[in-house]
């Protein structure tokens, strides 16, 4: 059984979800708001979202119920969110390594997964920021929303409830590690295409070949294949 809680406003759903994990056996508990004031992104970055336009959502899942590695669980979460958005929009949706969601070539969602202990239980705290109705973004930004990329006006509450139930079912029934790995790579943004990357301030052409089970990305350059962890390389499209 899953539970979903709403906040009219909160600082960060990833931080405040501990307030609704009320019992030691709590599992698949979600918290959401349409007005997050101090959103968190990967590696200490901020996730900024316009009030009443977008979704900040977190679900807490007991680590003992997840029988794959942390990296593969990250992959699986990204593919699950990708699948939900693809089904909803009917558009091409890809995963920009390691966990940004790209809809029609614009970033519409970011995912942050943390591990925390609450009431003696260890949890994956899975946060997702999803741009839904926002119309305007910084001109140099690669960001967009479901509305800007599809023209669809979506009800925020229905979207959230459907996403929560979708993820609840997905996290209850994980596929094999091989299936997770293959699905992630099948939907990897700009895989096998020539792209521009920035490494230590220098731009260089390369081709994404795969993400591996250790969380690294493998890119082919003129001098051969090289692997990178997040923040060691930047995809400039």
Helix segment count? 5
Percent strand equals: 35-45%
Structural class: alpha+beta
Gross geometry: globular
**What is the CA–CA distance across the termini?**
41 Å
What are the secondary-structure elements, in order, as H or E? EHEEEEHEEEEHHHEEEEE
Portion in helices: 10-25%
Instruction: Report low-confidence residues grouped into runs of 5 or more.
Output: none
Largest sheet: 7 strands, mixed
Work out the radius of gyration: 18 Å
Describe the strand arrangement of the main beta sheet, using strand numbers.
Answer: 1-2-5-9-8-7-6
Average pLDDT value? 92
**Total strand count, please?**
14
Explain what you see:
The mean pLDDT is 92. The protein is built from 5 helices and 14 strands. It has helices at 13-16, 70-89, 146-150, 156-172, 177-186; strands spanning 3-7, 29-33, 39-40, 46-47, 54-62, 93-96, 100-103, 106-118, 121-131, 194-199, 202-211, 217-221, 224-228, 234-235. It is an alpha+beta fold and 237 residues long. β12 (217-221) and β13 form a beta hairpin. The strands form 3 sheets. The chain has a 7-stranded mixed β-sheet with strand order 1-2-5-9-8-7-6. 36% of the residues are buried.
């Amino acid at each position: 059984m899953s539970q979903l809680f709403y906040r009219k406003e909160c600082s960060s759903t990833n931080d405040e979800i501990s307030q609704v994990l009320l019992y030691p056996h709590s599992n698949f508990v979600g918290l959401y708001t349409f007005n997050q004031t101090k959103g968190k992104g990967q590696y200490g970055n901020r996730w900024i979202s316009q009030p009443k336009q977008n979704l900040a959502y977190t679900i807490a899942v007991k680590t003992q119920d997840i029988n794959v590695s942390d990296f593969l669980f990250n992959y699986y979460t990204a593919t699950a969110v990708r699948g939900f958005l693809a089904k909803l929009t009917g558009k091409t949706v890809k995963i920009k390594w390691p966990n940004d969601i790209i809809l029609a070539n614009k970033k519409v969602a970011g995912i942050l997964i943390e591990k925390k202990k609450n009431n003696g239980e260890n949890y994956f705290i899975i946060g997702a920021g999803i741009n839904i109705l926002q119309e305007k973004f910084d001109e140099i930004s690669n960001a967009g929303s479901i509305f800007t990329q599809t023209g669809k006006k979506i009800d925020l509450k229905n979207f959230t409830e459907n996403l929560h139930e979708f993820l609840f079912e997905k996290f209850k029934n994980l596929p094999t590690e091989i299936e997770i790995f293959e699905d992630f790579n099948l939907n990897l943004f700009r895989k096998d295409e020539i792209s521009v990357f920035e490494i230590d301030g220098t731009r260089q052409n390369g081709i994404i070949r795969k993400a591996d089970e250790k969380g690294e990305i493998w890119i082919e350059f003129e001098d051969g294949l090289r692997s990178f962890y997040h923040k060691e390389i930047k995809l400039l499209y």
